[in-house]
UniProtKB/TrEMBL annotation:
Gene Ontology annotations for the cellular component aspect, listed alphabetically: membrane
Name of the protein described by the UniProt record: LemA protein
Family to which the UniProt record says this protein belongs: Belongs to the LemA family.
Topology class, membrane: Single-pass membrane protein
SUPFAM superfamilies to which the protein is assigned, alphabetical: LemA-like
Taxonomy, superkingdom: Bacteria
Entry keyword annotation includes Zinc: no
Keywords: Membrane, Transmembrane, Transmembrane helix
Localization terms from the record: Membrane
Keyword Ligase: no
Predominant cellular place of this UniProt entry's protein: membrane
Length: 182
């Protein structure tokens, strides 16, 4: 009788420990996503200023500017993590094309406002990369715990679900950029 009570007590304690660990990991993943979301919002807030600045110099790039504005609006809209990752990657590629186009306009490259916006965008992209790594690390830990025995039993009982990674959706994002210094 005492042995049964001790075993049940140990199982209850183990369940509580696992449950609390799953809660902590889930909250870390949510916090990680919040960090990505903040950086995506900062980038989206920067886009109208960047578009306006470039528009004054590069009027014939209207289609690219419209695409960037559309993607910016999609980024702000509520989306699932895979959709938001896809939209964010598309916006990032479009912004890179915009910066490449800006190279053709010496007056634009010298514009103080453009230079400041370009610097802010670079800072945001670096922070966004760090946020993605943190988020994916916390998601990895949570998903491992949800799939591993005996925590998978507790996760199933309390309906814990795996999170999606913030992943690159386009193979071209993984390609090494070609650099021509000539």
């Amino acid at each position: 009788m005492i042995v049964t009570i001790v075993v049940l007590g140990l199982l209850l304690i183990q369940t509580i420990v696992i449950y609390n660990r799953l809660i902590r990991l889930r909250n870390n993943a949510r916090e990680g996503w919040s960090g990505i979301d903040v950086q995506l919002k900062r980038r989206a807030d920067l886009v109208p200023n960047l578009v306006t600045t470039v528009k004054g110099y590069a009027n014939h790039e209207q289609q690219l500017l419209e695409d960037i504005t559309k993607l910016r609006n999609q980024t702000i809209a509520d989306q699932s993590i895979p959709n938001q990752a896809k939209t964010a990657a598309e916006l990032g590629r479009s912004l890179q094309r915009l910066l490449v186009i800006a190279e053709a306009y010496p007056e634009l490259k010298a514009d103080k406002n453009f230079l400041k916006l370009q610097e802010q965008l670079s800072e945001i992209e670096n922070t966004l990369q760090k946020s993605r790594r943190y988020y994916n690390g916390t998601v990895r830990e949570l998903n491992i715990k949800i799939e591993s025995f005996p925590s998978n039993l507790v996760a199933k009982i309390f309906s814990f679900e795996k999170f999606d990674f913030f992943a690159l959706t386009d193979a071209s994002d993984r390609a090494v950029p070609e650099i021509n210094l000539n």
